[in-house]
């Protein structure tokens, strides 16, 4: 924008010239921020330049005069600084163990110094949400996400539960039946000989229970080979020997 006073007609800077006409000439309706004012002024000057197609020398002078008048009589408003409010603290997740996700439970949720107890139904998955009634600062409800953590050797991935169990190396080598301890009790599975390690077995429908549109998950058991693990027969023999010792028979 030129500062040369000689470019403006004498009547342009008259005290009684309405500012709204100057704003209208630049395509504005009133005071605006500095960046907006400059962009509107440049656009109007470019459109009115007499050395371009459709330009007009008189309009060009009036646009420059309007810009000068606005600068003198109504300086542009400063840009508003963004409010410096701290971001809201992230809401805590409701942590569940795999056992709590399997069976449901009453869990405690801490919000600052306040504590709430909420009923977690069986079959919740990570990413589901639970509503805490009246838990917000203003007394409204809070909806918190669920997170199933690793616990008791169990990991939950989606609908499925993953665990590891020991198995004798001879069963992996020769094949045979393996007894697996699960959250639903002992389960048997057959291992064919010559399988490459790691061996992972799938026990159907022993994952998280069905809930809503989600079907029941599966239990995946990774077998970890142990060299000195006794066989089932050796285990029974050891138990028999422990119970029926000569001392107990003598008694």
Give a written overview of the molecule.
The model is unreliable at 1-16 (pLDDT under 50). The chain has helices at residues 19-25, 34-48, 57-73, 98-103, 169-174, 232-243, 246-250, and strands at residues 94-96, 105-111, 114-120, 129-132, 142-148, 155-157, 160-168, 176-182, 185-191, 199-203, 219-226. A four-stranded mixed sheet has the order 6-7-11-10. With 251 residues, the protein is an alpha+beta fold. 27% of the residues lie in helices and 27% in strands. The chain contains seven helices and eleven strands. 16% of the residues are buried. α1 (19-25) crosses α3 (57-73) and α2 runs antiparallel to α3.
Properties at a glance:
7 helices, 27% strand, 251 residues
Task: Produce the secondary structure layout.
Layout: H1 19-25, H2 34-48, H3 57-73, E1 94-96, H4 98-103, E2 105-111, E3 114-120, E4 129-132, E5 142-148, E6 155-157, E7 160-168, H5 169-174, E8 176-182, E9 185-191, E10 199-203, E11 219-226, H6 232-243, H7 246-250
Parallel strand pairs: 1-5, 7-11
Antiparallel strand pairs: 2-3, 4-5, 6-7, 8-9, 10-11
| Number of E-state strands | 11
| Helix content range | 25-40%
**Rg value:** 40 Å
Number of helices: 7
- Runs with pLDDT <50, length 5+? 1-16
Strand percentage, roughly? Answer: 25-35%
Shape summary? elongated
Biggest sheet: strands side by side, in what order?
6-7-11-10
Order of SSEs, N→C? Answer: HHHEHEEEEEEHEEEEHH
Terminal CA distance: 114 Å
The mean pLDDT is 80
Which secondary-structure class do the elements indicate?
alpha+beta
| Sheet with the most strands, sense and barrel status | 4 strands, mixed
């Amino acid at each position: 924008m030129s500062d040369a006073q000689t470019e403006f007609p004498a009547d342009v800077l008259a005290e009684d010239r309405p500012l709204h006409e100057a704003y209208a000439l630049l395509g504005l309706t009133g005071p605006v921020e500095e960046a907006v004012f400059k962009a509107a002024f440049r656009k109007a000057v470019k459109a009115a330049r007499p050395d371009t197609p459709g330009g007009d020398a008189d309009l060009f002078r009036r646009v420059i005069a309007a810009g000068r008048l606005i600068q003198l009589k109504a300086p542009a408003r400063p840009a508003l600084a963004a409010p410096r409010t701290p971001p809201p603290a992230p809401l805590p997740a409701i942590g569940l163990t795999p056992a709590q996700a399997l069976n449901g439970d009453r869990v405690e949720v801490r919000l600052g110094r306040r504590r709430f107890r909420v009923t977690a139904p069986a079959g919740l998955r990570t990413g589901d949400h639970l509503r805490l009634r009246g838990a917000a600062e203003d007394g409204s409800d809070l909806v918190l996400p669920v997170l199933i953590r690793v616990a008791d050797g169990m990991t939950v991935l989606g609908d499925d539960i993953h665990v590891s169990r020991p198995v004798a190396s001879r069963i992996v080598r020769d094949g045979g039946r393996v007894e697996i301890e699960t959250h639903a009790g002992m389960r048997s599975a057959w291992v064919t000989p010559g399988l490459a390690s790691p061996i992972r077995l799938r026990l159907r429908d022993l994952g998280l229970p069905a809930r809503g549109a989600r079907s029941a998950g599966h239990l995946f058991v990774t077998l970890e080979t142990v060299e000195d693990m006794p066989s089932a027969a050796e285990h029974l023999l050891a138990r028999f020997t422990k119970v029926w010792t000569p001392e107990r028979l003598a008694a």
